[in-house]
Design brief:
The structure is a single chain. This protein has helices at residues 5-19, 105-117, 120-125, 132-140; strands at residues 95-98, 101-104. By secondary structure, the chain is mainly α. The protein has one domain (5-104): E3 ubiquitin-protein ligase SopA (Pectate Lyase C-like), CATH 2.160.20.80. A two-stranded antiparallel sheet has the order 1-2. It starts with a helix and ends with a helix.
Length: 142
């Protein structure tokens, strides 16, 4: 079910209060939530539960997802530049959906780094993977 922006804003506000640790607010539980196309720029979702959420086309620039549970999240078409995902629990083994494929979060981090830095060495290394389209764009510039 699609979450309205008003409901999402309330969940974010309650989560922010919960993160302050004064015993108030509520931890964000957005498992299986449809957040497609949502504007989540700069949102602090650290420690949130996003298991199975649909983030297709969502703008997550600068968001903090550290220690969040986002196994099986669908990230296809999401804007993830500047997202803090390196402190994710089970970073090496957690899978998310990208363009109808399950990929490891660590691969998402590699893709993010490759795009941000336009690293041709990474593009060559990953040109035969699910990141092929991104690699072609980088290699074409050379």
């Amino acid at each position: 079910m699609k979450i309205t922006q008003e409901k999402l804003d309330d969940i974010i506000a309650q989560h922010k209060i919960w993160l302050e640790g004064n015993g108030e607010g509520k931890r964000a539980d957005l498992r299986w939530a449809d957040l497609s196309g949502a504007d989540l720029r700069g949102v602090d979702f650290s420690y949130a539960t996003l298991f199975g959420a649909n983030l297709c086309g969502a703008d997550l620039q600068g968001a903090d997802l550290s220690d969040a549970d986002f196994r099986k999240v669908v990230f296809s078409g999401a804007v993830v530049s500047g997202v803090n995902i390196k402190k994710i629990k089970d970073y090496e083994t957690t899978e998310v959906w990208i363009n109808y494929r399950l990929v490891l979060v660590k691969e998402l981090v590699i893709r993010q780094k490759m795009i941000e830095t336009q690293d041709k060495n990474l593009a060559i290394l990953y040109k035969n993977t699910w990141m092929a389209d991104d690699c072609k764009k980088i290699l074409k510039k050379s």
